[in-house]
Every structure is written in C-alpha cells, then in structure tokens.
C-alpha cells in the first residue's frame, strides 16, 4: 500500500508540473462501469472469436450481419453504461485545466458522458452508441436500431435508403478514421505528459500513440491492472484499478492547485 501511495504522489506531481496532458484509455477504464474488456480472463475475446468481427465478414451477407448484431447485443458492447470514478476523475482534470485531450480506443461514449467536451475526445475506434448507413452515410442512435431488433428486425437496414447499416465502431480489417488518427498523433507528439489508463497496448496503430509522445520527449505514465509491452518505456508504472488510482490522483491535484491558488 505504501508503494501505491508513493506512486500516487509522484503521479500527481507529474500532472501538476505538466503543461499539456494527454490521457489515452483502453477498455480497462470502463470495466468498473460493467463493460467487459477484451483480453482479461473472461473478456470479450474469451467468448467470441475476433475473426468473426471483421469488416469483410459483416459486409459478406445478411446472415453474417444477423450474427454480428446478435453478438454485439449479447456481448454487452452496445449497452448504455454509466461512467465510473475513473471517467469522472479524467473529466475533473479537464475542469482543473489539466487535460489537453483524451485519446480513447473505447467505443462506449463514457468520457463524453462523464463531462469531457466532445472536441477533446478522439475516438480512434469509433463510437458504438451510433450507427452509420454505408450507402447514404446518415448516422442514427444505436438505441433506435436496437429497438427495431427487439421488435423482431433481424438485420436492420437504413430507414431512408435501405442501405446496410453498421455500428460506427471500427471493425477488424476496417480503416481507422484518418482525421481522428492524425489529430491524436499530433496531440501525442505535442504533449509533455502522456497517461495510459487500462490498455494492453497491443493493438496498432492506437498503441503507437505513447511511443510518439515518448519520442517527442514527453513523460509516460501507465496505470493498468497488469503489465504492458511499453512498461519499460514509462516514467512511472502503477498497477491497480483505474477508478481508485485516478480518483486519488485527481483529488491530490485538485487540493494542490487550490492551495497554491493557481486555479
Ligand atoms: N483498472 C485498470 N486496468 C484494468 C481494469 C481496471 N479496472 N480492468 C482491466 N484492466 C486492464 C487489463 O488488465 C488489460 O491490461 O485493462 C487492459 C485492457 O486491455 P484490453 O482488454 O486488451 O483492451 P484494449 O487495450 O482497450 O484493447 C484495444 O483491441 O479488440 C480491440 O478494438 C478493440 O479497442 C480494443 C483494442
């Protein structure tokens, strides 16, 4: 416990001293909201085969899309969850003037729901709370499509042009949103503190971001339950739960800023 307290002190010192803080999150920041992650024991990829979630498979046939929609519903990836203390602590860093942006691999919309402004959240893998028509490019709320599936529609199509509709999350084999990727890379290179929370850092190009930051001279903090391939690269590694770590760190940052009057 002593070691964790010391790490929390060092972590908050790094945030206080930083001018441009980028927070990079993975599925581990949302498990305390009840959303399973992918690679922990019992995670999504222990129940489903990622090979079944490819863009090509989704486009291949109505039958494949029917299976996709069923898996997405069962897998809990479309559920409307609530932010947890980790999301709220990150939003608090924004309110304290200590957040340049959030770069997230998550598609659950929870950073925005917790209060981080939309234009400060870069969603590298899209957003599962909205659906896109691949023909007319219109967007719809996911809950509208789930309602139709609940009422018996097995393979929902676009209510306007009857084109194929797909969750607006990036499937394996699908290109990441290029503009978002470029913006996230730029912010990673421009920051002086890069904080990773809840990611195995094994999926690229998202996992290039911490390396871009380090190469540009930023300090790197990795807060995660388990070790990652980039731990050796980090200024500080903290093993623990995101909700607990981020709440304690943000509390220390808040009290240090308010006592020094630099709000
Ligand atoms: N607090 C801190 N860390 C946690 C917590 C928690 N409460 N819960 C889980 N973790 C850690 C796990 O130990 C794991 O190292 O978060 C990490 C989650 O890793 P993954 O499940 O691999 O998720 P992520 O890194 O976001 O995956 C990246 O892979 O399948 C694709 O597109 C998918 O965006 C996803 C990408």
Describe the structure.
This protein is of the alpha/beta class. It folds into 2 domains: 1-34 and 82-125 and 176-263, 3-Layer(aba) Sandwich (Rossmann fold), CATH 3.40.50.1220; 36-80 and 126-169, SIR2/SIRT2 'Small Domain' (2-Layer Sandwich). It is 39% helix and 16% strand. The chain has 10 helices and 9 strands. It has helices at 2-17, 44-47, 55-60, 62-74, 85-95, 110-114, 142-150, 178-190, 209-215, 242-260, and strands at residues 21-25, 101-104, 121-123, 126-133, 139-141, 165-169, 193-197, 219-224, 236-239. A 6-stranded parallel sheet has the order 3-2-1-7-8-9, sandwiched between helices. It has a 3-stranded antiparallel sheet with strand order 5-4-6. The protein is elongated. Bound molecules: adenosine-5-diphosphoribose. Adenosine-5-diphosphoribose binds next to loops.
Question: What is shown here, in short?
Answer:
With 263 residues, the protein is an alpha/beta fold.
Helix- and strand-based class?
alpha/beta
Biggest β-sheet description: 6 strands, parallel
Give the strand line-up of the largest sheet. Answer: 3-2-1-7-8-9
CATH topology term of the largest domain = Rossmann fold
Task: List key phrases describing it.
3-stranded antiparallel beta sheet; 263 residues; alpha/beta; 9 strands; 2 domains; elongated; 16% strand; 6-stranded parallel beta sheet; Rossmann fold; binds adenosine-5-diphosphoribose; SIR2/SIRT2 'Small Domain'
What is the fold's blueprint, element by element?
Elements: H1 2-17, E1 21-25, H2 44-47, H3 55-60, H4 62-74, H5 85-95, E2 101-104, H6 110-114, E3 121-123, E4 126-133, E5 139-141, H7 142-150, E6 165-169, H8 178-190, E7 193-197, H9 209-215, E8 219-224, E9 236-239, H10 242-260
Parallel strand pairs: 1-2, 1-7, 2-3, 7-8, 8-9
Antiparallel strand pairs: 4-5, 4-6
Helix pairs in contact: 1-10, 5-10, 8-9
This protein binds adenosine-5-diphosphoribose.
The site of adenosine-5-diphosphoribose has 21 residues, from loops.
């Amino acid at each position: 416990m002593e070691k964790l307290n010391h790490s929390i002190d060092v972590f908050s010192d790094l945030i206080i001293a930083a001018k441009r803080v980028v927070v990079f999150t993975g599925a581990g920041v949302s498990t305390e909201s009840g959303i399973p992650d992918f690679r922990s024991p019992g995670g999504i990829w222990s129940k489903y085969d990622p090979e079944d979630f490819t863009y090509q498979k989704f486009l291949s046939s109505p039958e494949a899309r029917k299976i996709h929609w069923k898996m997405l519903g069962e897998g809990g990836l479309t559920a409307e969850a609530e932010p947890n203390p980790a999301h709220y602590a990150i939003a608090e860093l924004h309110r304290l003037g200590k957040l340049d942006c959030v770069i997230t691999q998550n598609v659950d919309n929870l950073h925005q729901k917790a209060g981080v402004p939309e234009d400060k959240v870069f969603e590298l893998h899209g957003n599962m709370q909205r659906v896109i028509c691949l023909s007319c490019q219109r967007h719809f709320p996911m809950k509208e499509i789930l309602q139709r599936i609940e009422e018996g529609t097995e393979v929902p199509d676009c209510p306007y042009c009857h084109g194929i509709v797909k969750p607006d999350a990036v499937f394996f084999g699908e290109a990441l949103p290029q503009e978002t990727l470029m913006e996230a890379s730029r912010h990673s290179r421009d920051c002086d503190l890069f904080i990773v929370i809840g990611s195995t850092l094994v999926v690229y190009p998202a996992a290039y971001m911490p390396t871009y930051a380090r190469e540009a001279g930023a300090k790197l903090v990795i807060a995660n339950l388990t070790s990652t391939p980039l731990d050796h690269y980090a200024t500080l590694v903290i093993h623990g739960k995101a909700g607990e770590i981020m709440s304690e760190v943000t509390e220390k940052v808040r009290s240090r800023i308010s006592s020094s009057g630099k709000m």
